[in-house]
Amino acid sequence: MALQLMKIAVLASAVVEVNPNVQRFFYVTTTATTAGNTLTIDAADFFDDTGNAVTALPELTSNNSSYNLFVNGVLQMEGISTYTSGETGVGSVEIEAIGGAIFANTPIIVEVVNYAPDTNITIET
User: Fold this and answer.
1) Domains of the chain and any CATH numbers
2) I need a labelling partner for 111 at 20 to 30 A (CA). Which of 10, 34, 71, 72 fits?
């Protein structure tokens, strides 16, 4: 008999669910931030989708999350902001007013997306 590769024959299928958890945080500026300065918004200054006060900004899951920053309804470039999770006094969003001022009464929206992937594998013998 000739040599041949011996291997296990298995039928398998996998179903992957992404399961995003989206949270949005809102703030309306009370004063202007002049060009070249930084606007710092504490976690407690935000309110959520239901209008309730926020007590903490959520953790960003390592390698499985992102946040988006909108100033006056316009998505901003990644490099102008810093997101820090945590409770009041620790959690904050810092926005550098690069190239122009952020005016008083400007809406700021932070969208945090954490993914909780789930994989179900079925092996048929």
Assistant:
1) 18-124 (2.40.30)
2) 34
